[in-house]
Here is the input.
Amino acid sequence: MKFRLLLVIGLSVFSSCQREAFSWDVDNTIPLFRTEFKLDDIDPRYMNNVSGDSSYTLSYENLVYSYKVNDVQVSDTGIDESFNLRKLKLNDQQIQNEITLGDINPIFKLLNGQKTVIPAQDQTDLDPTDIDASAFFETATLDTGFLDISIQNDLPVEISLIVFELRNKDDNTVVATDSFKNIPASGGVSKQTIDLGGKTVTKNLVGVIRKLVTKASSGPVLIESDKGIKVILGVRNLRPVYAVAAFPTQDVINQDEGLILYMGGADIKYFKVESGRLRIKVISTIQEDMSMVLALPGATKDGKSFYQELSLPGPGGKGVATTEKIYEMKGFLLDFRGKDPDVKDTVNTFHQILRVTLDSSGRKLAVGLQDSIVLEYRLEGLKPEYAIGYLGNQLSRTGVDTTSFNLFKGLSGDVKFKDIKLGFVLKNSIGADGRFRLHQLAGINQFSGKDLALSANPLNNDLYVAKPKFIRGEFTETKVQLDVNNSNIKPFLENLPQLLEYDLETEVSPNGNVNNYTDFVFDESRLDVIMRLDVPISFEFGGLVFRDTQGVNFGNLANLQRLKSATLFMDMDNGFPIDLDLKIELMDESRRVIGSLDLEPGGRIAANSPTDFVIKLPRDQMDALRRTQYFHIVAKAATAPGLQKIYNTSRLKIHSRMRFEYEIQN
Here is the structure.
């Protein structure tokens, strides 16, 4: 009990002591970053240690401009066809009806089998005869078509005149009326053709002889009452506007020809497909199945030409049937010399055989003009693995443009090279001759803002480069060597440019089709303009600047608002044979400079020696420190007399840490 009482009393005393605020300071030291500067910052790919004393030799190649022949692409090309009822046809057919001698005059039925003299006849409006035309169709309104009416005279007397009329039985509309004259006896025939365009014909027809005039027999003749006049009706070339009929099997599309493709000005004989496809889409509202045959005799892969048979099911009732197929063409070699190159050798012409057939089921279908068959046939996105032919005369000028020059990234200052030579190279992997002309080239140092135009006598004229062999990856080169005697290349490079501003032109096949359609292009073929540098490095320094940006994150530190001060420790180890002047800037998240650090004494780092900096950041810099996301470190070479040789072991190493002082209140 006494122990508990004392504890309560002690806590009460302690609690009472909290009424007065007090403070104390706390130190917290954290590592920041390690980094180092070296001439490998130029780009280690181009710094080679080939000298006996391990000094640097600079080997660098910078692509100034690359022209790629990418116009040898087949523009999406194909066939769009729409077929409606006007392009479908019905069968050419015949039917036969007979009007007997007994039908003409019933008295001849009584005299059947006897011989007698038949007097001349002159009759009008004989009894109509039903004609069943359902073999033609149920009904049809015809856009075009013809009705052939043949009158065969099986009477034993000559017919002087017969006027025949054909009517639709259901509404008694006249389909055709015509006259036939002087038809010989016993088998004579007379024929007339009626244009059915614009007429509606049904399966139930009526034939009427409006007038019949016959001559008398020359004497007694045998009476055969079941013989008389045969009416033979034939329909042909029927193309209906509307029909209920059994449409026969027929080709609705039948093409066997060359399809001309646009190649962006090139004339191509052969085309090996790297990517692309053939797309076929058929839309039909006609209630019949169809079939399609597609053959591309000039498209071969693995020794076989392209051939496809495709079923196109009908809608199966009211509606629309759509069939779409896509065939990848990768790997096919396309012969663009046309349908029959042995007879006519052409270019950019793709031989295709396309046949779409309406497969008759024998069912009678109602088809109108609103019904159609639509075909879309497309070669899409064809790009070559290679193409052979004449690529066309392709002239391209860049206008003023810029490209990066990565050799001197992050560097500025007065650097002098002892010896320097630079090659200007045209590298051609396009299978055609090429021409190059440099109109201007300037180097720009982004840090100093200084630009210097290249002046080089060998580049004042056109440069030509020959075509390579037909082998993937093969190339030819034309080289021009620039040195201090024929150009200002030394001051040009001593400006340490990070950008090249150029205006140049390239031309493919400058002399036209001199290689007679044997030029070629691979998918990776191009004409490159390259600057190639290969020199030993001895520098004369005057303000050479190294730059580095290091990200920092103070967000993990608690109570940043109570920072009292901070101290930055920078341990430097300079392995360069020159003094360096150090500068440290504070940057926010947008890399904007929001402050700099004071370095004592003056930020000088002695050559070939270690140097330590202790940098105080007082309270008035705490706000900038809280917003700091990056430290921008700049090391500028102090002027050193004469040329200095730099070794691959030369480094400026930096190890940093920071101590924070907090004020804590309670």
In short: Residues 1-25, 40-47, 49-54 have pLDDT under 50 and may be disordered. Helices lie at 2-17, 101-104, 107-110, 489-494, 622-626. DSSP finds five helices and 46 strands in the chain. Residues 26-54+542-665 form a domain with the Jelly Rolls fold (CATH 2.60.120).
